[in-house]
Amino acid sequence: xxxxxxxxxxxxxxxxxxxxxxxxxxxxxxxxxxxxxxxxxxxxxxxxxxxxxxxxxxxxxxxxxxxxxxxxxxxxxxxxxxxxxxxxxxxxxxxxxxxxxxxxxxxxxxxxxxxxxxxxxxxxxxxxxxxxxxxxxxxxxxxxxxxxxxxxxxxxxxxxxxxxxxxxxxxxxxxxxxxxxxxxxxxxxxxxxxxxxxxxxxxxxxxxxxxxxxxxxxxxxxxxxxxxxxxxxxxxxxxxxxxxxxxxxxxxxxxxxxxxxxxxxxxxxxx
Length: 271
What we know:
It comes from Scylla paramamosain (Mud crab). This protein has helices at 55-67, 83-93, 126-152, 178-197, 214-222, 226-237, 244-257, and strands spanning 2-5, 16-18, 26-27, 34-35, 48-50, 104-109, 159-165, 202-207, 265-267. It has 271 residues and is an alpha/beta fold. It has a single domain (2-270), classed as NAD(P)-binding Rossmann-like Domain (Rossmann fold, 3-Layer(aba) Sandwich). α2 crosses α3 (126-152) and α3 (126-152) runs parallel beside α4 (178-197). The longest helix has 27 residues, at 126-152.
């Protein structure tokens, strides 16, 4: 089985910190492959993730651990990557360690950022807006297109499932979260279109619920709107936030049952 996921890293002057490999996943020094056979080893010190990292890395780590997947990590700034970068990376890394084409290929679009969490009337930086949508929308389109083209060249029948990590914000407006809501809503519609364009591909927009991640810390401290900020603070204090592990467990079970309508938006609490 192939599993491909989007995870973002920055090297643009932001403060960064080294992110270790997750528990139970090993990064071999001899080749860029993680496996589940030797836990507790650190990723190389040269790999840097954003210090304000969002839920993407924590969520996909849980997918890899609970799913028992191996993976071949690639560090890339998704806000600046071009179509040719995705194509070259996929050709170089997809299928590493496998001698035959997979029976199933899963693509998780999990990378994303919360962005500026202030009122729309106060947004005045066109460059920052462009970078946000390059990371959260354009990169998704380019990677997905490159992935679909590559899969179409493989011999034999390959079951393809594309999972977009969505949010309640794709459906409901959150004050001072205009960028995030717009990005999530746009991605949901992109994958609804993919579902009707390619009926042979199984597409799911999965909202994982309110996860207890670094993104939540950012939301509780930086959100401009008092009501929204207080809501997230109360959820943390009352123990209402979910672990990535519990959400991923539901997602993988849901994917295995394979009873959803392709393109649907499904929330953690509906599974």
